[in-house]
Amino acid sequence: MPDFQGILESIYQDAIKANDKGTVATYIPELAHIDKNNFGIHLRTFDGNEYGIGDYNKPFSIQSISKVLALSKAMALVSETIWNRVDVEPSGHPFNQLALLEIENGIPRNPLINSGAIVIADILISNLKNPKEDFLSYVRDLTGDDTINYNKTVAHSEKMTGFKNYAAANLLKSFKNLKNPVEEVLDFYFHQCSIEMTCSQLTKAFYFLSNKGTCLLNKTRLTKTQAKRINAIMLTCGFYDEAGEFAFEVGLPGKSGVGGGIVALLPDHFVITTWSPGLNKKGNSKLGMLALEQFTTKTKLSVF
Ligand code: GLN
Asked: CB neighbours (10 Å) of residue 147?
């Protein structure tokens, strides 16, 4: 068995010394204040052992990482009908790109780009009694932690500047791929993105995807096939126009967010979460990607 704690230590030492830590996202004004010197990693192996280093217990904005949790809830609720409204192809474009959506008649390329996640938000609103409360309970339940919450200041901040998401939602509406009002769908979407979690909470929350759909509390959340499908979508679409690079360098299904988090997993082996708020040009955590590349190289554990 690899010396996991030793490997995390050496990754951490390299990361804190890095000269270029990337750039913190500023297009959501509230995220611009985050110190890019934060750096945390948390790993949980299948035998239940946990390893952490740095700021792995500090909450951060999970942003697009929430899209995977929202997708899992929607799949549990409506199963295969999702795929009539969202495709499963990598977009090869930034997360907020609109051109393809217009060309492809309002069917988003996949559920992990913004337009696809907005359709998933619409599905959740149509199928949950109290969408925001119920989604938060789902995330708390997956993690086994009731302290997890929305950050309403971040949600409001994104609402004030989320012009491209408004454009995407309006385009979806014009193609009749949104059932609920644009305002309502985006309010839900901005809230889901504003959820704050720590690396160790995210590692717990994503356990069910590494465990054929059954979460840490031993509840079945998804079928084995559904868990497999989400992992396939994370591998091919989780990093937008850098999905190929992530598969090439790291070789794990995973998902990033503009808050600087990345969750990645190896089915039946482990879940790992990194947090480093500085992003690269494609909007993925710069040091998080480097750390995960080192992790799979040093442990020789990846899907390939
Ligand atoms: N809330 C962000 C947005 O919609 C999420 C983007 C991301 O994390 N990549 O722009």
From this structure: 11
